[in-house]
Write a structure and sequence with these properties.
The protein has 185 residues and is mainly beta. Helix content is 3%, strand content 49%. It folds into two domains: 1-39, no CATH class; 40-181, Jelly Rolls. It is elongated and about 75 Å long.
């Protein structure tokens, strides 16, 4: 035997709407649901607005300065270039970098690194073989616990080239950094 419960709105004890239905199968999350436990926020994504030159063979903070999304104003895109969510939990953090030498010369090594609270947390490196590599794209991602008050993440890049100026390529397709809170984790 089955039971059927028919309601148009589900509310908490305070009268805040969690979910409503129009009676035709269309559901609308209420404000309590959209901003509460079932929301993947805080969340942000940003990219490098113009090419950034970096010191040869030195891990350097990437100045990701153009926001695509910042749901809770938790990403500083103008001075520290870091994400500091004020909601505790586990977050999926990801980053992509495309790097090259301005002389189109050989790349000897490249690194992308996500730093948490000033220390390397997750990194990917590349040491190409041969002398044909002049441009490299690297990605990394991690699930990171944040305390909801002071924990933060930043993006760093490293490029070792034979000659020319090591450069991180700008644009949302080539250099981006983002994170979002995981629900149910």
């Amino acid at each position: 035997m089955s039971s059927i419960l028919k309601v148009n709105t589900i509310q908490d004890a305070g009268g805040n709407s969690f979910l409503s239905s129009n009676g035709s199968g269309t559901f609308t999350p209420g404000s309590a649901m959209a901003t509460g436990v079932l929301a993947n926020t805080p969340a942000f994504e940003a990219y490098l607005g113009s090419n950034q030159t970096v010191s040869h063979a030195t891990l350097t903070k990437v100045t990701i300065n153009t926001e695509v999304l910042d749901s809770s104003s938790a990403y500083d895109h103008s001075s520290n270039y870091r994400f500091t969510p004020q909601t505790a939990g586990k977050y999926f953090v990801y980053a992509n970098l495309t790097m090259y030498s301005t002389s189109n010369d050989t790349i000897n090594g490249a690194i992308i690194a996500i730093y948490k609270n000033g220390s390397n947390y997750k990194a990917q490196d590349l040491t190409p073989g041969g002398s044909e590599t002049v441009r490299e794209a690297l990605s990394t991602a991690a699930i990171i616990d944040f305390n909801g008050s002071s924990d933060y993440v930043e993006l760093f890049g490293y490029l070792d080239v034979d000659s020319g100026t090591p450069t991180i390529q700008s644009g949302d397709k080539y250099c981006n950094f983002g994170a979002y809170k995981l629900i149910g984790a």
